[in-house]
Description:
Elements: E1 5-10, H1 15-26, E2 30-36, H2 43-47, E3 52-55, H3 59-71, E4 75-78, H4 85-96, E5 102-105, H5 111-123, E6 129-136, H6 146-161, E7 181-183, E8 186-192, E9 198-206, E10 209-217, H7 224-234, E11 239-242
Parallel strand pairs: 1-2, 1-3, 3-4, 4-5, 5-11, 6-8
Antiparallel strand pairs: 6-9, 7-8, 9-10
Helix pairs in contact: 3-4, 5-6
The chain binds NADPH dihydro-nicotinamide-adenine-dinucleotide phosphate and the ligand O=C(O)C1=N[C@H](C(=O)O)C[C@H](O)C1.
Amino acid sequence: MSEPIRVAVLGAAGRMGSTVVRAVQAAPDLELVAQVDAGGDPRAVADAGAQVAVDFTVPAVTEGNVHALVDAGVHAVVGTTGWTEQSLGRVRDRLGGAPGVGVVVAPNFALGAVLAMAFARQAARWFESAEVVELHHPDKVDAPSGTARHTAQGIAQARAAAGLGPMPDATTQAADGARGADVDGVRVHAVRLRGLVAHEEVLLGNPGEMLTIRHDSFDRVSFMPGVLLAVRQVLHRPGLTVGLEPLLDLGA
Ligand SMILES: NC(=O)C1=CN([C@@H]2O[C@H](COP(=O)(O)OP(=O)(O)OC[C@H]3O[C@@H](n4cnc5c(N)ncnc54)[C@H](OP(=O)(O)O)[C@@H]3O)[C@@H](O)[C@H]2O)C=CC1
Ligand SMILES: O=C(O)C1=N[C@H](C(=O)O)C[C@H](O)C1
């Protein structure tokens, strides 16, 4: 058997980070060599000889972490949310100076969630209306979720490619937030409720019918197959990959 892949985890004490630590420790082809949390020294990642670092921290620090990893020649698998076209562009630029280094940034590593997004994108051009409802635990700091943003962007791109215009909506009077957030013309609604983990519904409507695409993560173990897949593949994917779709052969 070949040498195990040396893996570090950033945000190791968090809800996701601690789950990733256990998943890496349980995988025979991976070796956990460093764990860093808030207040820890990120240089520990390179010092420990990590080949891949997994980042599940907080939106405010993740971009800086990725730049430091790229500069150190460490591949990165990033699940933290809060990425924008601008911050992704800065990572692309940084990678220009680090040939061979790979970064995978994915808003959701649950295979079912990635498939749900792909199905929503596929269905979008056939419906007049589409809205996204995401439902999460109340300890989540960002809204709408990265997954919901990615879903809405996919729907918007599919609608634009099909030549569809704005969705029907006669609302002229609404209380603040009543119609949710506008993500590229798609309305996104965020629910925060104790007991939930991570859930999403895509509602697609036509006269006389509605298609609902729903995904539920009941436990954070649901994200682990996607995280481990990315850890194994990022070594062979130089440059920036956004979303898990290309790793699952589902297109961009
Ligand atoms: N892509 C995906 O599939 C998924 C993505 N997520 C995303 O992952 C992120 C983390 O979620 P979750 O685990 O629930 O959040 P948590 O708050 O439980 O975990 C974040 C951890 O990062 C730590 N941290 C803060 N700053 C740093 C730093 N500079 N260096 C290292 N660690 C740091 C925090 O420490 P402290 O608490 O002491 O500040 C905390 O332990 C969120 O953005 C969430 O949306 C979540 C689930 C799945
Ligand atoms: O914070 C979470 O919990 C999650 N965050 C990600 C997101 O914002 O989309 C992924 C998943 O929904 C869980």
